[in-house]
Write a structure and sequence with these properties.
Layout lengths: L1 H8 L5 H8 L3 H8 L15 H16 L6 H15 L12 H10 L13 H4 L3 H17 L31
């Protein structure tokens, strides 16, 4: 409804076209556009649906790379983009708040919040010697399987485990 409302208010669609496009009742949309029922000020779309989709895509790609974001960090990134573009918004200092973020998450259920796990003690104290020993073990293991790493493209060898490669160890990241 919010997207349809703002599409009509921004003169990008007619009420009939917006109702059909966004799948909302035409009479309800008409009532909201014609101020029969007030629109709460927090329902204003600050970012376009396309901009929000870019954020969703970015969050999903980042999550696949095991790079999580706290809610506050996500809001700071959005603030930085808005400031760089010179856009003025209803946000305090151009930084989205909890209300906007909660609405964003409701509008995009494909964005799932998750807690990261704390990095284990062994992984936190990684040294060059430990890395070289690990590669030695990999080479030995591959040799036992009949693979000579001197004849194999190294890009075809990868390690996968259940924890991925977290880029921080605070245990506070989400998304």
């Amino acid at each position: 409804m919010e997207q349809a409302f703002w599409a009509v208010k921004n003169n990008t669609m007619s009420i009939k076209k917006a109702a059909k496009h966004f799948g909302v009742p035409r009479t309800t949309l008409s009532d909201k556009v014609n101020a029969k029922y007030p629109v709460h000020p927090t329902t204003k779309m600050v970012l376009t649906p396309e901009e929000e989709q870019k954020i969703v895509d970015w969050l999903i790609i980042s999550a696949r790379r095991d790079c999580g974001f706290t809610k506050d960090l996500l809001c700071l990134v959005i603030q930085k983009v808005l400031n760089a573009e010179g856009r003025k918004t209803v946000f305090t200092d151009n930084k989205p708040g909890r209300t906007w973020l909660d609405g964003f998450l409701r509008r995009h259920p494909e964005v799932i919040q998750r807690n990261t796990s704390v990095l284990g003690e062994q992984r936190a104290h990684l040294t060059e010697g430990k890395i070289r020993a690990w590669f030695g073990e990999v080479e030995t293991s591959l040799a036992e399987d009949g693979v000579d790493i001197r004849t194999v493209d190294p890009r075809s060898i990868f390690n996968a485990d259940k924890t991925g490669i977290p880029l921080h160890s605070s245990g506070q990241g989400k998304f």
